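haha ok so turns out i had the wrong file open the whole time. this is the CORRECT one, sorry everyone. sequence first:
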Amino acid sequence: MHRYPRWPIHVILVGVSFLMLIPFYWVLKTSVTGENIFAYPPSVLPRAPHPFYYVDVWYYIPFARYFLNSVVVSLIAIIANVALNAMAGYALTRDFPAKRFVLLLFLSCMMVPFQATIIPAYLITGKLGLLDSYWGLALPQCSTIVCIFVFKASFDAVPRSLIDAARIDGLAEWRIIWKVMMPLAKGAIATNVILAFIWSWNNFLWPLIVTRSADMQTLPLGLARFLSYQEDTTGALYAFCIMVLAPGILLFLLAQKEFIRGLTSGATKG
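then structure:
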């Protein structure tokens, strides 16, 4: 069987990747030069780069406080997603009455945008006394249906004989989840961690509604506040964007293999 060379495919993929990285490079270049992005002809290489715009972002607003708030909220969302979604995903792999109805209900709820449920979510958060708090900021992100199905797909790929053997050994259901299923679902865990982090880190609308004090604002709200303080924000604005994007990009690069494995888990059984 004749095999075609693979190098043309790699060349095409490298070219597409290069095109997709151009906006990121342009943001990084503008953040250290402050040049006008509408200048023509545009300069490909940075001219007289300096880190002053990053210093401006740090001192014009309480960036450290906003960063800490975003980190705390994201950590709460990550831990809650891994714990709650794993238990829900395991439950969906078991046989129980009305299982098909529950699956259809979950799938239908995925079509409802968060903006349609934001008023009930706000009222529930207020009744719980969690407004203007870290728990209130993280509450809507503590479990997501997409991530539940990621765990379900990963758990479905585990042989039933392994679970039956654990039951014979006397393990309770919750110990089966944490001692047997979770070590085999590293891809699903990485997917939950990355998605929960990105969704909570970039969330703007919910923190805008539930926060009352400036000390509880997160980085997206800090960006809006920064724009209200600065008029010429070309360099400083992009410096702010780089400082916000860097943690998410770093997390994805560290866990990208497990992330892809988690998204494709369940494609094969066993």
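Residues 1-50 form one domain.
again sry for the mixup
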